[in-house]
Amino acid sequence: MANEITFLEAIREGIDEEMARSPEVFCMGEDIGAYGGAFKVTEGLLAKYGDARVLDTPISEAGFVGAAAGAAHMGMRPVVELQFIDFISCAYDMLTNYVATARYRAFLPCPMVVRGPSGGYVRGGPFHSQNPEAAFLHTPGLKIVYPSTAEDAKGLIKSAIRDDDCVLFFEHKYLYRRVKGVMPAGDHVVPIGKARVAREGTDASIITYAATVHKALEAAEQLAAEGISVEVLDLRSLLPLDDEAIQATVRKTHRVLLLHEDTRTGGIAGELCARINETSFAWLDAPVLRVAAADVPLPYSPPLEDYVLPQVADVVRAVRHLLAW
Amino acid sequence: MPKRTTPAAPPGILAREPRATPLGPHARALGDAQRLELYYWMRLTRTLEERLVALYKQTKVVGGLFRSLGQEADAVGSAFALERRDILSPLIRNMGSMLVKGATPLEVIRQYMAKGDSPTRGRELNIHFGDLDRGFVGQISHLGDMVPVMAGVALSFKMRREPRVVLVYVGDGATSTGAFHEGLNFAAVQKVPLVCIVENNGYAYSTPNPRQFAGEWFKDKAAAYGIPGVQADGNDVLAVYDVTRAAVERARAGEGVTLVELVTYRRKGHAEHDNQSYVPPGELEWWAAHNDPLDRYVARLTSEFRVPAARLAEVDARVQREVDAATDEAERSPMPEGTDALVGVYADPPVVPAEWYREGVTKAVERHERPASWGTSGGE
Ligand SMILES: Cc1ncc(C[n+]2csc(CCOP(=O)(O)OP(=O)(O)O)c2C)c(N)n1
Ligand SMILES: [Mg+2]
Fold it and tell me: Do A28 and A129 share a domain, yes or no?
């Protein structure tokens, strides 16, 4: 389609619109200026807004995430890029100790966005493929967003920038150039904390987010050919979670598969399962099942990565198993 | 030595004239065979990387490819200053250091091709691998992290009174990390036998030195840690060897940490995908023409040390044979089996159980899902 843009361009468009809308918004990160970032998300922003609002930083994640918090206290709205989300671990202390507690303990606002390319299926090996969202789910005070479509990527980055708290914005690099969409006209904002039904169905629900939304949709298509009707719920926001949407799909299909690319133990599926158990136990016709990555660091070689990460065939098998319960 | 006739560099580019460093005491002590060995390692580094580029273009390399073109002298000369019992930790431009320490071209090619019999069995990329027996510890991607780790390796040598020395590499960019600071400070306070090499190659990805560091030279950081900071022309392999050897001997004598800045230049992009659009016109050409470490060393060997050109040609031929043989063998290596991924997360239990929905699945996936376009589009 003529006015279709990629997931990556949608994020850029969202940042660009917010920078145009409010002079407090500025970007910081490694190689984001003239180079436009390792994946080119910020390409063109330096030329448009100048080096006072698009800052190349030294390789100091704790430094510039901390500096973003300070600027945010003063009314600025920093959008910080991590070259790969795997390097968020270098700023873990700043985010969990300083940023997440600032409002609660000191009444200091931290309206900032920390964004970066995440996720696997790209042969990136153990340090360029991570999904560290669960490490932050356990930190009250942070918000976490992880979109799967270009429209949501744009609408959610805009919401994240306008949010009065710190939002971690995960950008699945597998989707950057593979997923495209036509942006709704006007000021397109998608609210944080609202899930989206990506496919309607009646026999079972797959609750997921990010790249595995696309795996779920592919599995649903295959299962439809067998006469199985699968609903796919795309969470979009992980913190806060959309309990209403989760309950609605569970109570509609009575069978639930939780799917994520992150490793199984301690992954978000555990939290989802607990919530479903607490609110909708009586509506379940089968135990809640999980498909997730094996509990190993993500290896690089294609056969290894393919084995560790969830694949469409796994989802199909698991849904059949749910239906046979 | 013939008189140098380097023309003035075009304005606005980062150009550094080759320094006329007189032979230091350690370099002077090298014999003919050792000088030729240095040439061999530098040539092997360059030829092996050129082979990797060819494999990359044939899409046989999985993931990114990182070059050290123009930095062979700094990697090789510094590692050559170590003894067999010493340990180093390389960074992404230090394939040459690893070769000196005993890594083989076969291992490097298998690793880049993600083969099942690569040193990491397909778990890690490029030159991220190590071998304690041969004396090199594999890096992780997170920059700066190896500085504290290697400080700890050095601490163990100090505690056990073993006369061994540790060498750790960081780039100009990596000096901006907290880990670099904490590790170097720890090592300096503990006075452990550590040599920290800062390879100043002008850029960190697209970021030039002035946007990385407001000081002038990285060696100047040393004073704040209470350790000596020294510097050498990183494209002069004998100067690199000399300055590193002095730091290594100082460490071995129990005098503690030295920071060594090697001034060099990154002639290729951050990785093969990087088109270097941020480099001012003429800069790459200037370094290729006027400050190439191999060209400089060849000129010196043939003039100052009277090595016949035929001797160098023999080395080149040997390198070519070795790289060819390694390529053939690596191409025959198998890919790993998917289930290999479950082995070795812990000592106990040695194997992580397979997910229930994978029972009976021995191949990676029932239907191989790899689209043709898979591969990282970003850098390291
Ligand atoms: C903590 C951390 N942040 C960011 C990166 C991404 N990254 C990889 S290499 C690199 C540039 C490194 O520059 P330098 O240290 O000068 O080494 P060079 O590549 O020049 O040898 C960056 C930013 C990383 N690996 N680790
Ligand atoms: Mg550098």
Answer: yes
